[in-house]
Design brief:
With 198 residues, the protein is an alpha+beta fold. 29% of the residues lie in helices and 21% in strands. The protein contains six helices and seven strands; from the N terminus they run E-E-E-H-E-H-H-E-H-H-E-E-H. The chain has a four-stranded antiparallel beta sheet, covered by helices on one side.
């Protein structure tokens, strides 16, 4: 029997990264068409761990994740169960050699890039003591976009103390704020106004 018939050595491929950082993505594609052939790092190759990012039409980072081998199975799960999926308009893919490398890259992306929908992992990521935290920051979002992201925006206010100003035609009309902010405002309202004391 030829040696080639019993080959078990791993094949070598060049790690792949989406040219230009991202590519257009259609969330309504059939599962079999979700990934390009070059994005599928087949088992048995040197590089088959995948770090992926999904962005909305305004290139805001929605979600960062990792998977092994063929991403279509994982993305098919997102397609069925993830609330953000229909907002996805762009995708980036990066191949990594090991699971640990992929996981480290995922956590670093969540920590630094602050994706909207990675709430669970974000809570467990330690931050360097000398790094300015993203917590307590403010962001703006049109009401039309916020409608489909309400749960995630509430989580951002709850877990990261973010304040999200909701805009309509460029003007702030409401806000989603942490409970501590609301309590502070209510206490402020309850205090007598010094100028109106007799």
């Amino acid at each position: 029997m030829p040696d080639s018939a019993n080959r078990t050595d791993r094949m070598t491929v060049v790690p792949y990264q989406t040219p230009g950082g991202m590519r257009p993505f259609d969330p309504n594609s059939r599962r079999s068409e979700l990934a390009l052939p070059v994005e599928i790092a087949k088992y048995g190759f040197d590089v088959y761990h995948i770090l992926y990012r999904f962005y909305d039409s305004e290139r805001r980072l929605l979600y960062v994740g990792i998977t092994t081998w063929d991403p279509r199975a994982r993305w098919g799960g997102h397609q069925r169960y993830s609330s953000w999926w229909r907002s996805a308009a762009f995708l980036s893919v990066r191949h990594l050699a090991t699971r640990d490398a992929a996981r480290d890259a995922e956590l670093e992306a969540i920590r630094v890039e602050n994706p909207i929908f990675n709430v669970a992992d974000r809570k467990s990521i330690p931050r360097p003591a000398d790094e300015t935290s993203a917590a307590g920051t403010s962001a703006e979002m049109p009401v039309t976009c916020a409608r489909s992201l309400l749960t995630e925006l509430v989580n951002r206010a709850n877990y990261r103390d973010e304040r999200i100003a909701l805009t309509r035609r460029g003007r702030v009309v409401a806000a989603i704020v942490p409970v501590a902010d609301l309590e502070w405002l209510e206490n402020l309202d309850a205090q007598p106004d010094e100028e109106h004391r007799s």
